[in-house]
Amino acid sequence: MPEFTRVADVSEVSDPGKLLVEVEGEVVALFHVEGRFYAIDDVCTHDGGPLVDGELNGYKIACPRHGAKFDIRSGAALSMPAVRPTRAHAVKVENGGVWVALGSGPGSTPGPNNQAADFRSYAPTNTAAAAEVSPAPPASAGSPVVAAGMPATGAATAAATDGAPSEEAVREWLKEVKDPELFVNIVDLGLIYGVTLSPSADAPGKQHVSIDMTMTSPACPAGPQLIADTKRAVGSRESIAAVEVRIVMDPPWTPDRMTDAARDQLGIF
Ligand code: FES
C-alpha cells in the first residue's frame, strides 16, 4: 500500500491551480484541474526545470526553461526538448485535505482521484553522459566524413568527390551534426527543412549551400552550437564555397518530424 502524506488543504489550491509541496523530502508539483488533483515531480526531464513555475493550460504544464510540455495526469512528456516522462504520483482527497503517495502513479489508487492514464517509469535525461560524448569528428577538406555508425552511401560519397554535390549528399553530411542534448543527428530529428545548392559566383566550380533549419524549441539552448556545427559539417567540403544557415520557426518543429531511427534512439514508441 502506498504511504500517503497530507500535503495541503483542498481550499489551498484554486481550480485551475498549482502548488509546490513536499513529500518525504521530495518536491512535488500539485495541480487542481476541473475538480481533481494531480501530482508529478517538480522536475523537467530535459534539464531539471521547475515545472510548477510553468504555464498550466488544461492538463498540460509547460516547463518555464525551454518549453517542454508534460501531461499532469500521467507525467508523460508531450513535446520536445523533453522526451522522457516525469514521475507521477497517486493523489487522494480525504478529510478536507489532499494526500500524495510518492511514485505510485495515477491509476493505482482507488477513489475519486484515480486517473486512468498511461504511467511510465521515471528515467531522467542523463545530461552528464551526453556531455561526455565526443564531438563530431572534424571534416577534412576533400574527403567526405561519414558519421560514426552510419555506413557511407554510394550516392552521397560519389557526389561529394565528383564535383557538384547533390542535396542528398549534403543531407548525409548533416547527419554528422548531433543535438548535444538528445544526441540524435539533426536530419533524423527533422530539423532540416530545406537544402538548396547553387553555383558560387565567387568561386567558380564550387557550390553555395543554403540550409533552412529549425530548432526543437524557440529558446533551444543548443541553437548556436547547432548552427556552427552545421556550417562546419558542410562548409569544410572542398566542393563548397559558402554555407548559409537560416533558422525557420514556421512551421514549428513537432515530434512527428522525427524519423523512426530517431524515435528508436530516444526510446519513443
Ligand atoms: S529544462 Fe525543461 S525544457 Fe529544458
What are its keywords?
alpha+beta, binds FE2/S2 (inorganic) cluster, Rieske Iron-sulfur Protein, 269 residues, GMP Synthetase, Chain A, domain 3, elongated, six-stranded antiparallel β-sheet, 26% strand, 5 helices, three-stranded antiparallel β-sheet
Topology (SSEs and partners):
Blueprint: E1 5-9, E2 17-23, E3 26-33, E4 36-41, E5 55-57, E6 60-62, E7 69-71, E8 88-94, E9 97-101, H1 127-132, H2 154-161, H3 167-174, E10 192-199, E11 207-213, H4 223-235, E12 240-247, H5 260-266
Parallel strand pairs: 11-12
Antiparallel strand pairs: 1-9, 2-3, 3-4, 4-8, 5-6, 6-7, 8-9, 10-11
The structure holds FE2/S2 (inorganic) cluster.
Description:
By secondary structure, the chain is of the alpha+beta class. It has two domains: 5-125, Rieske [2Fe-2S] iron-sulphur domain (Rieske Iron-sulfur Protein), CATH 2.102.10; 129-266, Fe-S cluster assembly (FSCA) (GMP Synthetase, Chain A, domain 3). It is built from five helices and twelve strands. It has a six-stranded antiparallel sheet with strand order 1-9-8-4-3-2, with no helix packed on it. α2 packs across α3. The protein binds FE2/S2 (inorganic) cluster (FES).
Bound molecules: FE2/S2 (inorganic) cluster
Gyration radius (Cα, Å) is: 23 Å
Shape: elongated
For CATH, the homologous superfamily of the largest domain is named as: Fe-S cluster assembly (FSCA)
CATH architecture of the largest domain: 2-Layer Sandwich
Number of discrete helical segments: 5
**Oligomerization category of the chains in this entry:** single chain
Biggest β-sheet strands, sense, barrel = 6 strands, antiparallel
Low-confidence stretches: 106-162
Number of structural units classed as domains: 2
What class would the helix/strand composition place it in? alpha+beta
